[in-house]
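Entry 12.
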Amino acid sequence: MSGRTRQGMTEKERREYWACLALRHCPGVGARTACRLLRIFGSAYEALQERQRWPEAGLTPKQSAALAGGAWRTSAREEWDRARDLDAAIVFWSSPAYPRMLRLLPDAPALLYCRGDLSLFSSACFAVVGARRATQHGQAVAQHMARCLSACGISIVSGLALGIDRVAHQAALTRIGKSIGVLGTGIDVPYPQANRDIFEQMQTQGLLVSEWAPGTLPLPGNFPVRNRIISGLSLGVLVVEAAGRSGSLITARLALEQNREVFAVPGPALDARCLGSQDLVRQGARAVFNAEDVLRDLAENLRPYGISPENLPEGEDLPIPPRNEAADRPARPDPGASQKRKSTPGAAGHHPAPAMPATGAGPPIPEHGAALLERLREHGAEHVDVLAQGLGLSAGEANSLLVELEMWGLVRRLPGARYEVKA
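Predicted 3D structure (tokens):
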């Protein structure tokens, strides 16, 4: 069962589809309960056949009565009928085509509607999310990261929203890794309309995914629910430009709960549009400055896919142009046209490093910074928690300190949240 349209299903697949709809629409049986049944019985169809084992599988008498009584049939039939002529593959939890990373979740969807290249489910995936009203600089960062990682063969996952999502999808589609878009609507409902071009392009060059019934409209409650799929498909999540109450933080929280790596672009200090990203760093998220940071941190997880930092094509991971006044303004809602890079002063191909303070022989070392550097020189590479304990700092204080020292090029982060002095 590699994923077929409803019209093209075998009899066995039709039975499994109907059983999945029963679990989805049964009152009182949520995603976690349905997923538990799938794990115990191996498929939705087998779960419905083994009524005598429902109590040992954890179903309450009320849930068992609802499932056996067919209270779900009317709404399940509506979804069944909507899918009759739907041009989309339907991938069941029990299918070999179902994404391995997503299947590990305790609330994995019983089925997915898909349009596009299902082989992307087997690739290394990484999520890039962030603000809808992103600045031009934020979009440039997302575009840069998505393009570089896709050039290494990593599929970029995002939510097909405006802003960061849009440019991440666009950039990834230009390289071999391609992109996966996870919808908060039915697979046949493009949203927002300004992204219809990407919606169409992803169906032929990438992959669109939705757990929602065909025809489902963009209800506000759908999007936080679908975020678990964005993070669940991915080895890690990068947050670009998230304000204090950004929806991207929901994806980051879900990623942590799913034991995925969380990365963030810190952004400038005191910028309200980046407060959420900065909070993530304080809480232990990896501060990211280029694509190589991600590749090195995920090196162990990427190895089975044959991906390493050495896969990054020469010239891809060049420094991102510095912020300017225009880039600090939010971009227009529909950033359809490609961004024009402004030329930088100096010789051709020169990318200036961050400006150093005018006074002193080097960067200003923050409080406790000298002690931390001395400890690393004396003890060698250490975990951030060991450093915090050794210096009498909280984990958040140690993380913030290390981020600043890393920005100045004084320390280097190693896999496993360990740090060493940069030679």
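Annotation: Residues 68 and 191 are 37 Å apart (CA to CA). The two ends are 53 Å apart (CA to CA).
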